[in-house]
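Case study: Lipoprotein.
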Amino acid sequence: MNTTISRRVGFATAALALGFGLTACSSSDDDSSSDSSSEPSASMTTEAMASGPFGAGCEAVPTSGEGSVDGMADDPVATAASNNPLLTTLVKAVTAADLGDTLNSAEALTVFAPTNDAFAKIPAADLDALLADKDALTKVLTHHVVEGEIGPDEIAAEHTTLAGDTITVEGSGEEFSVGESNVICGDVQTANAKVYVVDSVIMP
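Here is what the predicted structure looks like once written out:
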């Protein structure tokens, strides 16, 4: 199983190497009035979408240093996560599955990153067993990763994961969920990935 998953992750990474419109309507007869009111609105909405990280969970992210939002933007995703104190269990899992280099070397990814508290929801014995089973762990972790850097305006959709299955993101604006998991800090940029921090582990 590990070989198959590893190949699938490898193929997905190779594919990455090769490879968000608003309609404003007005019932006013005054064309100039309509243009002046709709176009700035579209512009402001686009700027709001691209304004960076959102969500109450972002308050827990360090405000300075390599683990801060600005600091994470400088490093590839696995390295960036390793600097963030909210994601130490995730980093432990990625290391156990030998996925660090794969994630860091990918050209563009979207990662749903469970916090330490998310992993703590799993009974300790079950979590220990998962961390010890490299095949199962790889499947769970790659289930959290999607090809391409997907912004908030396109994230609500069904996505194929690097595990070869699918996840469905629902919501809009600054509120998104993936099954029973909620995005608590979204649109965090790293050097090669968009990161959406989630409050539960997303099981395949």
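For the exam, be able to explain this: The CA atoms of residues 92 and 158 lie 28 Å apart.
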